[in-house]
Amino acid sequence: MSGKLGSRIVRGALFAQLKDKAIGYLKDPDKLRDLTRQASSKADASARTGALSGVFQSLRALLRLLRAYVKGEYRNVPPKSLILIVAGILYFLMPIDVIPDFIVGLGFIDDAAVLAWVVSTVKTVLDDFVMWEASRP
What we know:
Number of helices: 7
Helix content: over 70%
Number of domains: 1
Radius of gyration: 14 Å
Largest sheet: none
Distance between the termini: 40 Å
Oligomer: single chain
């Protein structure tokens, strides 16, 4: 179910707008840094409820990748992958989306579906980053 839901959402007009918005974030390191902070806070809060249990570790890896990218430590990320990652994070941060986050028990289903789709789409990029990260002293 989540694979189909995520795929359907990312093909929609809302996600297309988020991809356009992501380009602006990628041009502004301060905005991107702030985005990763906001997403980390929301991820931590949702982890306490177990709402994102299936994608939580991948979301954390995406956020670490973005932080390393902003710092200039890791740049081995294709532009299209960066746009998808940032758009996925923007979707995660939206309080009102396909299933509003305030609906207890359901609100994070669409967020998890979109994040799972993004992770599966950029899997090679994310795997390369995690290996790079593990090889650092």
